[in-house]
Design a protein that fits this description.
Largest sheet: none
Radius of gyration: 47 Å
Oligomer: single chain
Distance between the termini: 142 Å
Strand content: under 5%
Structural class: mainly alpha
Shape: rod-shaped
Number of strands: 0
Length: about 190
């Protein structure tokens, strides 16, 4: 068997594709070349399947990573939004507290003025009623001081507890105001 020596630079990668007739070795018939071509086709198809599967796997992994990255980015964005909302809610809460505190302090100051008036009116009472009247005024004054202490010592907590605190304090303030009015009516 004589072999034809073909310089390496003359062989190209397309020489194994059917229709491209590469120089053949003498003594090899076309059927043997077909087997070689079939083997190359099989290998090419096999390699293509591996390439496609590899590409798909890499794509899935990359999309999972992208999905995870997107989830992380979304979570970070949500965290930032939540922080901003919390800051805004705290500002609103502080403003609400300060406004409410001013309103309560005005009512407490009005109660103190009314208590001072009642003390002056106490002098006009009969001697035997003065002691009971003074005790009533003292009790109401203590309640007023207690309300001032509660509003000054309030620790900012949850919105539900804040609403409950306001409701209770308003109830107590209203009750004290009514008691002061009733005590003044009894004096007349």
């Amino acid at each position: 068997m004589n072999h034809v020596n073909i310089p390496v630079n003359r062989i190209n990668r397309f020489s194994c594709i059917p229709g491209n007739f590469a120089p053949m070795k003498p003594g090899i018939n076309r059927s043997e070349t077909g087997k070689t071509e079939n083997r190359l086709k099989f290998l090419s198809a096999f390699d293509m399947k591996h390439i496609i599967y590899t590409f798909l796997i890499v794509s899935v992994i990359a999309s999972c990573n992208n999905s995870a990255e997107r989830k992380v980015e979304k979570a970070e964005e949500n965290l930032e939004e939540a922080k901003e909302d919390l800051k805004e809610e705290r500002r609103d809460s502080i403003e609400d507290y300060e406004t409410y505190k001013l309103e309560v302090e005005q009512k407490i100051a009005a109660n103190e003025a009314r208590i001072a008036e009642l003390r002056l009116e106490m002098k006009n009472r009969k001697a035997n009623d003065r002691e009971a009247y003074k005790n009533s005024i003292d009790r109401l004054e203590e309640k007023n001081k207690e309300l001032r202490r509660r509003i000054n010592e309030y620790n900012k907590t949850s919105k539900e507890k804040w609403e409950e605190f306001k409701r209770e304090l308003n109830h107590d303030l209203d009750g004290l105001g009514e008691s002061l009015k009733d005590l003044g009516r009894d004096n007349k």
